[in-house]
């Protein structure tokens, strides 16, 4: 019997596999595609997942050759620009990386960690009992203690597990393409009165932007129904012409596709021994939050599964996956629904709405609030009034030149003693004694996913037992 079967080798499934392997579990990843996808469905990562890559020592590797990696100076919210200038405590970071490269790098990392990825294996059935989960794969069956559906919006795992997926589907479709173009094309677009971003007319909207040299990203939204079958270059050009009333020098197509936005949230993230993560658990209609939330779903779930499988924590800890991550999904769905609604308002009403929001967003308070929404939904896992417990650990600069992020490479719990004399004995928790300027607490107990489980002076034993298992002994010098 396998420990964990992961269905889907996209970014979420591969991230989960890497995290489980770091924690000493050897998952098996099942993917119906024969090879990695070459479709650039996403163009980058933003928010907390960038910090997690930093924690795992992967950020430099993943950002090599990226057009941009670093702290976000701003971000569009429903097409209205946000500026974070002067907001020094906002941690939002961006990494421009197209999804095919992201998947290749995650697959490389998974193989380095000994993960088995079985491609060309379509799962055709699922059944579970008190002891485990059985997946039908062709004419064979695989058995595991747990299964995780990372198999996207049309997740069969979610369906077989009996998890409802309520929500709505947009009435308006989007066709999108990447085109080879040189700098003269962008100069020509500007001279024709077209601006980067969405260009609106009474007939619809046309997106024109670029995230890397030589590549134009274009999209068209219009009331007309999406074309039957694959999107063609002639069809794309015709849609641009219908909306703008003229042709645009798009260049040679690299990739063309169509999609319809959906807003959905799984009624639960766990059904017995089956879990869902990523697009199988939530679909957002706007805002570029899908990979951030989906991949951090995986990071949250992995260490808990590993703790249970290795007998360190009770099986009930797995219930905290739904309790912690579903509110994150719900809040992200809320803000992306709001973005989609703002973006849909057309004509003079839409212009007035976005102009007023632009004035509001120019104030530091609203800009910071929205930045936190984009970072990690603005929610923590602990009491709202607690600035540390249940929040992602601040990346403190430690004496000697180290950082907190560098303590998290192995995806293990860390007790960081900053001068309070905290101690914990156990074979799973790394104890680090360090000093820093202006420490936020005497000591921090940090979960493998980077969240603070405990801070301060009292209650360390209880927190260590709650999150990391009985049998630990704790004391204070």
UniProtKB/TrEMBL annotation:
Domain of life where this protein originates: Bacteria
Keyword entries, A-Z: FAD, Flavoprotein
Keyword Flavoprotein among record annotations: yes
InterPro entries attached to this UniProt entry: FAD-bd, FAD/NAD-bd_sf, RIFMO-like
Keyword check for DNA-binding: no
Known cofactor(s): FAD
Short name of one Pfam family: FAD_binding_3
Domain FAD-binding: 3-335
SUPFAM superfamilies xrefs: FAD/NAD(P)-binding domain (SSF51905)
A GO molecular-function annotation: oxidoreductase activity, acting on paired donors, with incorporation or reduction of molecular oxygen, NAD(P)H as one donor, and incorporation of one atom of oxygen
Protein name, UniProt field: 2-polyprenyl-6-methoxyphenol hydroxylase-like FAD-dependent oxidoreductase
């Amino acid at each position: 019997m396998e420990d964990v079967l992961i269905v889907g080798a996209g970014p979420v499934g591969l991230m989960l596999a890497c995290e489980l392997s770091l924690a000493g579990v050897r998952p098996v990843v099942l993917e119906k595609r024969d090879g990695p996808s070459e479709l650039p469905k996403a163009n980058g990562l933003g928010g907390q997942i960038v910090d997690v890559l930093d924690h795992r020592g992967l950020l430099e590797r993943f950002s090599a050759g990226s057009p941009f990696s670093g702290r976000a100076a701003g971000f569009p919210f429903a097409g209205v620009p946000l500026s974070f200038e002067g907001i020094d405590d906002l941690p939002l970071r961006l990494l421009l990386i197209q999804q095919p490269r992201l998947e290749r790098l995650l697959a490389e990392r998974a193989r380095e960690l000994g993960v088995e990825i079985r491609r060309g294996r379509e799962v055709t059935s699922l059944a579970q009992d008190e002891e485990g989960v059985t997946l039908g794969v062709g004419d064979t069956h695989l058995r595991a203690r747990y299964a995780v559906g990372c198999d996207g919006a049309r997740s069969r795992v979610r369906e077989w597990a009996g998890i409802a997926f309520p929500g709505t589907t947009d009435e308006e479709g989007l066709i999108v393409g990447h085109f080879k173009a040189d700098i003269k094309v962008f100069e020509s677009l500007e001279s024709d009165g077209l601006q980067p971003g969405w260009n609106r007319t009474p007939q619809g909207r046309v997106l024109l932007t670029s995230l890397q040299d030589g590549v134009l990203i274009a999209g068209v939204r219009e009331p007309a129904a999406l074309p039957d079958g694959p999107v063609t270059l002639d069809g794309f050009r015709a849609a641009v012409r219908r909306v703008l009333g003229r042709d645009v020098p798009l260049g040679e197509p690299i990739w063309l596709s169509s999609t319809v936005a959906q807003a959905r949230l799984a009624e639960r993230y766990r059904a017995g021994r089956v879990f869902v993560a990523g697009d199988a658990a939530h679909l957002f209609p706007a805002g570029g939050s899908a990979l951030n939330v989906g991949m951090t779903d995986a990071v949250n779930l992995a260490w808990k599964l590993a703790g249970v499988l290795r007998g360190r924590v009770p099986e009930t800890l797995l219930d905290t996956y739904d309790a912690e991550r579903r509110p994150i999904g719900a809040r992200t769905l809320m803000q992306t629904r709001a973005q989609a609604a703002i973006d849909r308002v057309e004509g003079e009403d839409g212009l007035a709405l976005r102009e007023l929001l632009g004035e509001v967003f120019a104030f530091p308070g609203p800009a910071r609030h929205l930045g936190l929404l984009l970072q990690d939904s603005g929610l923590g896992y602990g009491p709202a009034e607690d600035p540390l417990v249940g929040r992602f650990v601040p990346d403190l600069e430690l004496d000697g030149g180290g950082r907190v992020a560098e303590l998290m490479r192995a995806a293990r719990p860390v007790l960081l003693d900053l001068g309070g004399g905290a101690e914990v004995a156990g074979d799973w928790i790394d104890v680090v004694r360090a000093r820093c300027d202006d420490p936020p607490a005497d000591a921090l107990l940090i979960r493998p996913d980077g969240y603070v489980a405990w801070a301060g002076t009292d209650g360390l034993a209880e927190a260590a037992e709650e999150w990391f298992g009985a049998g630990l002994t704790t004391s204070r010098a």
